Amino acid sequence: MSDETWHRHVPMDAVPGSSSTAPGRTRGASRKRRRPSGDPPPLPRKLGLSGKVWVALAATLIAILALVIVSGKTIGFGFDRWNSHVLQRFASIRTDWRTPVMLRVHSVLSSPWTVGILRLATIVALLAFRRWRHLLVFIVSVIAVEAIAYELSIFFASPRPDGVLIMGSWSGPSFPSLPVAALAVTLVGIVYSLLPPGRPRSIGKWVTGSTLLLFSVAQLYLAIDALTGAISGLVLGVGIPVIAFRVFTPNEVFPVTYRRGRAAHLDVGGRRGTAIGTAVRDQLGLTVLEAKPIGLEGSGGSTPLRLRVAATDEEPERHLFAKLYAKSHVRADRWYKLGRTVLYGALEDEAPFQSVRRFVEYEDYTLLLLHNLSVPTPSPYGIVEITPEREYMIVMEFFEGAVEIGDAVVDDGVIDQGLSMVRRLWDAGIAHRDIKPANLMVRDGQLLLIDVFFVQVRPSPWRQAVDLANMMLVLALRSDTQRVYEQALKHFSDDEIAEAFAAARGVASPTQLRTAIKRDPRDLLGEFRALVPKRRAVAIQRWSVRRIALALSALTLVGVIVMLVASNWRVVL
After folding, report:
1. 550 shares its domain with 527
2. Based on the structure, what is the number of domains in the chain?
3. Is the pTM value of this prediction over 0.90?
C-alpha cells in the first residue's frame, strides 16, 4: 500500500499503549546521548548554498553602491566606460540572423503583458491552493524588487552608451535593469511558490536560469541594457525572492505539495525523517524503525505520528504516539486566538503561546497532570528537540487496539465513563476544551481521552459547561439522548445540564463535532434542550475595550494593506 493511500485510510485509533503503568518517560532510557556544545542539532536550520550565494552577491552589490556614493561617482564613471566597451563588443557580433532572434526574445520577455500574465496566473494558483504565506511572500517580493530597482535607477542614472547603435527603446536608466529585475523576481517567485522541492524545482531553476541568461544576453546584444544594469537586475530580482522564500517559507516548515492534507502537517520524510530518528535515539534512548503520519483528518495544530520503536531489554517492539510541533504552529495559534478575540471577545479566555518550546512543555505538563488525576490519558515519554526554538516533538504512549468512539460500540458503561470523566475534570478545576469524536477512543470497553493540548486549569464556568455538553453530544451520536441524559443525572444536576446546553452554541463546539451533528438525521441539540429545564442561552459574545481596540486595529491594517496593493497593482501585475 502506498504512503498516500495509507494516510487516507488509517483511522485515528493511534494513541499510546497502556495507562495502567507509571509515566513512560522512565522506560527504555538507555543509550542516551547529550549533544555537546557546538554540535549541530538533529535538523539544523540552513539557508542553503544558493541562498548564501545570493546573500553574498547582494552584499557585494550594496558595497559597490556605497563605494560609488562615497567616491562622488568617480568609480561610476569608470563603470560607464566599461559598459560602453562591453556593448561595443556585443555590437561587433551582430549578424542578419542573430538580430531578429534577439529582437523577438526582447519583445516577448520584456513585455508588460508577459510579466503581468505570469504574475496574475501565479496569484490565482496560490489563491486556489490556499497557500497564503507563499502568496504574501510572492507579492511583497515583487513590490520590493520593483520599488528598490526603480529608486536605484533614478539615483544611479546610467548614460546612453557611446558609439553603439541601440536596437530598441532605451526606456530610462539602465542601473539596475528594470525589465531584467521584473522578469527575474516573477520567474523565481513561481519556482519557489508553485514547484515542489526536488526534481520539479530543480528543473524549474534550470529553466529560469536559462531564460534569464538568454534575456540578459539579448538586452546586451541590442544595447538596451548595460552589463552592470543586467547584473544588478539579476542580483535584485533573484536574490530578494530567494532569501525571502528561504527565510519565511522554508521547505521543512512550509513544503510546496499537492497531496491531500493541511498546511499544519509537516513532511516527515527526507532530512526531517532522519532527524527525528536521530533525536529520539539520542534524547530518549529509543530506536525508531518507522515514523508514519496518522489521524491527520482530526488534527489541525500539529503533525501526529505513529512511531514503531525497536525492542529494548525491558520491552518488546512497540508503537508510540508523537506530535510534531513547529514554529509555524505557534504563529497559527497566535493568529487563531487573535481572530477569536476579535470575533467573540473573551471566548478563549487565555493568552497565546510565545514559543514552540512552550507548546510542548505545556502539553507535557497537562499529560502529567491528568495522569496524576487518574484520567485515562496517554503517559508521556518525554520531549524531543528537533531544531532549537523551531521544532519539537512530544512522545507518549500509543493506545494499541483502540478505535475512535465514532466507530465503537457505546453502551451504558462507556456513557457512564465519559460523564464521570467530565465530573472528575470539573472537580479538579480543569477543562479539556476540545472534546470531539477524534479525541475519544474506546478499547475493550474502556473510554480513553487523548489530545490534551487545549486543557485549561481553572477555566471559566462557561468553558466547563461546554465540556459537559460536548461530551453528551458525542455520546449521543452513538446512542440516544434519553440514555445519555439519564446517565448524566447520576453525576450532574438538572441545572448543571441545562447550563451546559445553554452554553453550547455555535463555535463553542469543535468543528468536527458540529459537522457530525449536522450529518445526523436527529436534532440532538433540540432533543437535549427538550429534556432539561428551560434556561436562557449563555451569550458567547464578550465586549471589552481590548476587543474593540483589536477590531479597529485589524480593520486599519487591512485597509493599509488594500491601499498598498492597490497603489502597486500595476507593479504586481
Report:
1. no
2. 4
3. no
